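I had to read the description of the data format several times before I understood it. In essence, backbone conformation is discretised, so a fold becomes a row of integers matching the chain in length. I therefore recommend that a typical entry be quoted early in the introduction. For illustration, here is how one protein appears when written out as sequence plus structure tokens.

***
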Amino acid sequence: MHQTKFALAVLAAAVLAGCGGSTAGDQTLKVKYSAQVSFGDSLSDVGSYAVGTVAALKGGKFTINGDNRSINPELTGKNWTELMAAQFSLPAPCAAETGLDGDASQGFSVPIKFNTGCYGYAMGGSRVTNPVGPNNKLTGSALGALTVPVVTQISNHLAAVCGKFKGDEIVFVIAGGNDALFQLGALQSGATAAGTAAGAQAGAQAFAANLVAAFAAGAPNPATAAQSIGAAVAAAAAAPGATSASIVGAAVQAAVLAGNTAVGTPAGYGPLVAKAQADATATGNAAGAAAGAAYAAAQGPALVAAMATAGNDLVALVKNQIIANGATRVVVNNLPDIANTPSGLSKDASTKALINAMVSAYNGALNTLSSEPKVLMVDVFAVSHDQATNPAPYGLTNVTDTACDLTPAKNPLGSSLVCNGSNLKAGDVSHYSYADDVHPTPFNNLLLARYVSKAMVVKGWL
């Protein structure tokens, strides 16, 4: 908390110069930067997908898009990298690569364009090294997000600047969130599939057992009847194209032959079938939930290990591709508190624990950069966690809900990518923490810019 108060108070004059509080000319920079270069994901994306239908929907960045200061002064539409560039008296950052590779019929197929002189490489959905991130066309998404990974972003920049940083740029790096989200999505899909299969099998077995027991109970010799009815049910279930109706029909016929004539009519067997189905559904649901949880528990350690690998990969990129090629000031933000986003809060306790373990593994790997003199590690996790648990000192009024109305009628993509002043929730959402389920509002971007600036001041870089 003491760091945050320092950032909000001591840095008010220095930071607000680039964030709407005063003019950039009012401050004296210790370091003059020739350019700002950013690598990463949606948190730093300045418009990679601001084309086609996304642009028509007045979107393009992963926040509340557009200058909506007429609604509230905090609704600037800017993300933290734009605020930082203004503070350095640099031109507004522009997307290095734009386009979409999705459904042409929906306006999501727009040729890729490389924009000369634009160094905003960060791109929504991008992972550290894997080219397939959330909303990439290979996931089945109609959007067709390009999700160029950080490793390629860096290569593209080096190609654009003759293989070398000049050394007087400020370089921002924040990535890894999509590695976590993508893997969590795959885990959920796998757990759902495992649960569905186990639930269906357990439910079918319970239905057959309950049906046999109920029909046999009314026969003169229940034990003998159970054997014949069970055989009939098993044969019907194994037959091609078996249905509940065909299985019930076989059971009714066998039960009547065994002497239980009371089930010979719908009025007789109907209630018994209904109860067997209800009991089977309960059994199947329980079995499915258990199987899904078991699958997730078994796969969890692999996800944690994968995040550690992604963190180590980013460390190698910073050392071997950025610093080794001439960069002298590299700001690396670690992962924020994903478990306390609206998306994370919607998960069960075990999933939240897994998310925290994944983030911890990733951030732990990044911590090795702290000893690099040309790197400034910024602990975004700490401040975002404090915001989630103690929002008032930050001026945040809501840290659990989305500022954007994400219903299909208001927001066709269900994402902050196309959120703007026309599809916000009712009331004053300007000091909400989140625009959608994971992305910050312009106000929270301002808080991040302040926090990074504070760290840069302490480092002597601002």
